[in-house]
Amino acid sequence: MSELLAIPLKRTLEVDFATELSKLIDTTSFQTASFFQSDILQVVAARNNAITPDISIGGLCELKEYYAILLQLEKKFPNNQIEFRWFQTLSQKSRGCSQYSLQWEKLTIIYNIGCMYSLLALNSNNDAAESLKTSCLYFQNAAGCFEYVLEQQVALGTTPVVDDATLNALTSLMLAQAQECFWFKAVQDKLKDSLIAKLSQQIVDFYSGAISNAQRGKLIRNDWINHLKAKKAYFSAVTYYRIALSFNEKKQFGNAVKALQMAMQFVNESKLSSQAKFKTVIESSLKEAQRDNDFIYLQQVPSELPATKPALMVKPSCTATLLPSIEKELFKDLIPIEVMDYCTAYNERQDEYIEQRVTKPLISLNKLLKESMSTIQIPQGLTTVSEAELSHYQASLNNLCINNKNVKTELDKIEQILNEEAFTDNQLRLKHGTLHWTLPESSTINTTYYEKLKKVRGYIDQGIAIDKQTYEIFQSIDKNLIGSEIRLPESSDPLTNKVKMIIQERNEYIDKTRRKSSEYRILPKIITSYKKNGTIDFEAIFVDHLKKFDEDLRYVNSTKQENNKLIEEVNLKEKHNSARSGIEQKKMVRIDPRELYIEDLRYSFKLLDEVKENLSAGTTFYENLITSTSNLYNEVQEYDAARRMEKTKLDERLTFEGQ
User: Fold this and answer.
1) SMART domains attached here (predicted)?
2) Which residue, of 77, 167, 316, 608, is most buried by count of CB atoms within 10 Å of its CB?
């Protein structure tokens, strides 16, 4: 048995794996590459062995060892970080292709494992029975590898290691040659001709598929395609020759003649080196069959023969049995940054879970409880007032006084200008006489300004009164009370103290649960899972992790019921108190020091709010008043300047006329 084909290994360029992996570790994990030098060197050695393997079982093992390492690299590192370049060896011209893809590198190695099986199948074939079995198995293994590469690159959508049509052609070729081994063993064992015909017909079918796909593919050379055609024709001749022998056994001599004629037709189409010897056998058998049928049997030779049903004896081997799994784990302690990012995200989800399921519900329950009892809660909006804030209010009061004095000073200046203008007008009128001094009297034309002046002085008086009142209010505030930390005195009411104790207990439980959450993190579980499985699907682990807080959820549910009972007790007590007389109720309220404290606190803050409101209004008031005073001052100055000019001109004219 000869004239079988083996698939040449793809060739590649060397990759500086040590440098590339070191950079990858330094950029994608929390560790440094120095911690993994031994693992890196194993990867480098494995690839160097796999790219130039011997055609031997040892070479096959080197390819599989590198494949197993690639499985680990896929789990530990991003797929698209290292560049690999491989060259096709099927076509007459070598074609190179580069990809940044561990998946592509892995599929290429699987392809080369298939090539290695085909090469080993040829090396194992010496026509002995055991070697035929081994070759048959190796060809099926090769077919399994090529079929797996095709399935994976279609499923993943990656750049093809080899185009789909070529892979289909190679798969069919390997199966054809595996079936050929089986057929040859059947010939050696001298099985029935009808069975051998069925075996060879399956070979024909495999070669038909290989030829069809090879012609559509991009890599298989024409001389290979011609070889496939020759093999198909040869085994077509074998099929009809064996059918003829089977017809002879059945004394169907006319059919035997037709079968030998078909065998002769196909053997003439074959260009194999073994064709000549087989052709001689067919020619001799055909002549003898025709002579016997023409002179002895006289059976009709049919125009066609029924199709021969093929006998399929081979199939692609399952890659699960061919390809190794991870044995010795590399980069065992490598933790990618992505895994740590997952931990951070899960920690945030855990904190949110605690806030939503424990913290916020307990805070809400406390709020409901506080709102139901006026004797235990500090009124909203009441916060400690700092000494600096009180000093600021005092300074603001002082500023109001300063603004008041400044406005009064400006008004005095305005009044002085008006008085001086009226005085000079009166003196000049006495000097020249009323008949000659024709300017309007000041008392007539400056009345408007005096009225404005009087109005502004009225505003000033109002401001002084309000400022004085604000100052007195500010002085009456209990500054020690509002300036000290707000602490309610101990209540004398048992229910109040019970509620206070429960609220404190819940607040402490909130703090305890938050500490528990901060200490009980998912990081160790995620790292353990990642080291074990190499996957980043941690959702199920997170769900199980949260079960640690089930007891806290039960506590929240139980305290909800407790809250409702306490509120009912408070409501009953309030109803009981409201039934008493107003005087008696007032006395009861006064008994509780907490109420006294809150009442005094509210009163002081109410006074402070009044002071702040007056200060705000006063600031706006004086800003407007200063603007109005300034405008009035400018008007009076313009009026005075105009009157001075008129007086000077009239005085000079009258003085000149009197000379």
Assistant:
1) BRO1
2) 167
Report which DSSP code applies to 336: B
Alpha-carbon distance of 383 to 378, in angstroms, equals 9
Q: For the segment 136-169, what is each residue's pLDDT rounded down to a tens digit?
A: 999 999 999 999 999 999 998 888 999 999 999 9
Alpha-carbon 425 to chain mean position: 90
Assign residue 241 the CATH number of its domain: 1.25.40.280
Using 50 as the pLDDT threshold, list the residues of the chain that sit under it. Answer: 581-590
Which 3 state secondary structure label does DSSP give 66? helix
Report the C-alpha gap between 356 and 352 in whole angstroms: 6
Query: Are 235 and 267 contacting, i.e. CB atoms less than 8 angstroms apart?
Result: no
With respect to residue 34, please indicate whether it lies within any of the assigned structural domains.
Answer: yes
Q: Kindly provide the b/e burial profile for residues 206-223, where b requires at least 16 CB atoms within 10 angstroms of the residue's own CB.
A: bbbbbbebbeebebbeee
DSSP secondary structure letter of residue 96: E
Whether 582 is in a domain gets the answer no
Separation of alpha carbons 36 and 47, rounded Å: 17
User: How many other CB atoms sit within 10 Å of the CB of residue 12?
Assistant: 19
Q: Which residue has tokens 């008004």?
A: 411
3-state secondary structure of 492: coil
Please state, in angstroms and rounded to a whole number, the distance separating the CA atoms of residues 538 and 536.
6
**Phi-psi category of residue 221: left, alpha or beta, with phi > 0 → left and psi -120 to 50 → alpha:** beta
The whole domain housing 412 covers 383-485+606-657
The predicted pLDDT at position 536 comes to 79
The verdict on 388 and 480 lying in the same domain is yes
Is 338 contained in some domain? no
Scanning the structure block, which residue is given the tokens 């008041």?
A: 404
* Domain closes at, from 270, 303, 322: 322
User: Three-state DSSP class for 7?
Assistant: coil
What is the predicted pLDDT for the residue at 260?
97
Alpha-carbon distance 613 to 565, whole Å? Answer: 43
- What tokens does 638 get? 């313009």
Q: What are the tokens at 163?
A: 């185009």
- Matching residue, tokens 């298939």: 114
Using only C-alpha atoms, the chain has a radius of gyration, in whole angstroms, of 54
Is 586 inside a domain boundary?
Answer: no
| CA–CA separation, 417 and 632 (whole Å) | 12
Of 322, 341, 363, the residue that ends a domain is 322
The model carries a pTM of 0.61
Distance CA 570, CA 574 (A): 6
Residue 492: its pLDDT value, please? 61
Distance CA 602, CA 386 (A): 17
Q: Are 40 and 18 in contact (CB under 8 A)?
A: yes
- How many other CB atoms are there within 10 angstroms of residue 262's CB atom? 20
d(CA 11, CA 108): 10
- Adjacent-strand bridge partners of 211: none
* Residue 392 CB coordination number (10 Å): 12
Residue 585: per-residue pLDDT: 46
Q: What is the pLDDT of residue 581?
A: 41
DSSP 560-605: HHHHHHHHHHHHHHHHHHHTS-HHHHHHHHHHSHHHHHHHHHHHHH
pLDDT for res 488: 59
- Local structure of residue 376 (DSSP, 8 states): T
Q: 392 Cβ partners below 8 Å, 6+ apart?
A: none
State residue 631's pLDDT score.
Answer: 92
Q: Which residue's entry shows tokens 């105009």?
A: 642
